[in-house]
Write a structure and sequence with these properties.
Length: 327
């Protein structure tokens, strides 16, 4: 292991099967602070890639803290150093802005809104396998990005609600979202159809929707998308375990704006409504099992999207967290 990268601890960490969650990497104390540089970090990432890959596989999440990652450009260099292929953000619901290279803003919905737990783009067939977050401006207060291990949620739900989980495994879920033409920055799911499908042409949008397995119905002032039925539980082959890979709680509790009623945003694959009490019990389990640490400027968080769900708590501005998605 290179001298620069040192596994450390933070108070918020949890232990699962004697492995820390998340894993935390900080600069080794043997490196004098004046010698700490971005090129040293990116070079260490390249040379220690097998070690970092195995750490991510074991833990599901790796937080890099205390390194000189001072701008969006620096963050882009860190992402590039890992060498993962980029995944364009097509079909996602969140309003975002491209910043530089492979970097864009994380969900830009208003600070007083929570963003519920979800796997990134779980409601479309092509989703990122990994994602990065970077704290450019730390929040005045709040604004954590809580993370939770998906297989733990599955195991707890199976014990608490076996018949519900069986029904989910049999039927999957259908997601319904009503979109305006343009983005609505006041909404957590406010991407309009033009930026959702990266086009102004309705024919191109229909084609891109079809490629995602999505039905697109045009309305007077926008469009309605219907996705599914798609699986709500996936099998993580690399770890030989089932994961709670869906946006059920996020859609049912958070897909709300002037166009969308969240209780109609998601249903069983056969059209049957979801029982409210069980959805809210799932939310309770997510909150119980999650880890939420305070963002510090320069933090880079790498998540395995197969293993971990994430959310966002409300905050007092300023806060700027950037993201990058990888295939």
């Amino acid at each position: 292991m290179a001298e620069l990268l040192l596994e450390t601890r933070i108070p918020e960490q949890k232990q699962y099967e004697s492995k820390p969650f998340p894993a935390v990497i900080s600069p080794s104390l043997s490196i004098p602070i004046p010698a700490l540089s971005l090129p040293l970090l990116t070079q260490s990432i390249r040379t220690q890639k097998p070690y970092l890959d195995s750490l991510l596989h074991e833990s599901g999440a790796v937080l890099f803290r205390g390194f000189p990652v001072n701008s969006a450009d620096d963050f882009n260099d860190v992402v590039e150093a890992f060498g993962f292929d980029e995944l364009p953000y097509v079909g996602g619901a969140a309003p975002r802005t491209s910043v530089v290279g492979r970097v864009f803003t994380a969900n830009e919905s208003p600070p007083d809104q929570k963003i519920p737990f979800h796997h990134e783009m779980a409601q479309v067939p092509e989703f990122p396998s990994k994602l990065f977050f970077y704290c450019e401006i730390e929040p005045k207060s709040g604004g954590e990005t809580p993370i939770v291990l998906s297989h733990i949620v599955y195991e707890r739900m199976k014990i608490a609600h076996p018949e519900f989980v069986q029904r989910l495994e049999e039927h999957g879920l259908v997601y319904v979202r009503v979109l305006g033409e343009e983005d609505d920055p006041s909404s957590p799911i406010g991407r309009g159809w033009k930026s959702t499908f990266l086009t102004h042409d309705k024919n191109v949008a229909e084609l891109r929707a079809a490629n995602l397995g999505m039905k697109l119905e045009w309305t007077e002032d926008g469009a309605k998308t219907v996705m599914g039925p798609i699986p709500a539980i996936k099998y993580d082959e690399s770890r030989n375990r089932k994961v709670w890979f869906n946006s059920m709680v996020a859609a049912y509790t958070g897909w709300e704006d002037k166009r969308n009623d969240p209780t109609k945003a998601v249903m069983f694959g056969d059209g049957m409504a979801l029982p409210k009490d069980i959805v809210h019990d799932c939310l309770r389990i997510l909150e119980e099992e999650c880890v939420a640490f305070q963002w510090q400027r320069g933090d880079v968080l790498l998540l395995d999207n197969w293993a971990v769900l994430h959310s966002r708590r409300s905050f007092d501005p300023p806060r700027r967290v950037l993201a990058s998605l990888c295939k």
